[in-house]
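REQUEST
  id: r-88c1
  op: predict_structure
  target: Cornifelin-like
  payload:
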Amino acid sequence: MTTNLIINNQQPQPQPPTLVAVQSIQWSTGICDCFDDLQICCFGLWCCPCLTCTTSTNFGECFCLPLLDNIILCPIVAMSMRVAMRYHYKIQGDMGSDCVYAYFCNVCSWCQMAREIKRRRLTLLNGKFGT
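RESPONSE
  id: r-88c1
  status: 200
  body:
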C-alpha cells in the first residue's frame, strides 16, 4: 500500500487591514464607546480642552472656538458642533439629544465627534487613494 503525501509549501500572504467605509446615517460609534479609540479617549480624559480644540480644527472650525464653552459655562459650542457634524455627515438625530449629550456627557460627546471625524477621514482617504 502506497501513500501519496502532498506538501503545500506556500505560506498564506498576509492581508492588509480592512477599513470599513463609514457612510452611515448613524454615528459610527456610540456616545459611551470611548474605548474604541484609546488615543482619543486618553486625550479627552487628560486634556479635554486640547481635544476640543483639535477636533474643532479637524472639522474646519476655529481652533479656539470650543474654549468659549469654558467661559460661558454652557456647552453651546459643543452642541453646535454636534449639530453641524450631524448635518455635514448626514447623521440622524435631533437638537434635543445633541443638547443632552453636550451638557451631561460633554467629554464623551467630544470623543465621539473626534472618532467620527477620524473614521470619516480614513474612509475618504481609503476611497480616494484606493488603498
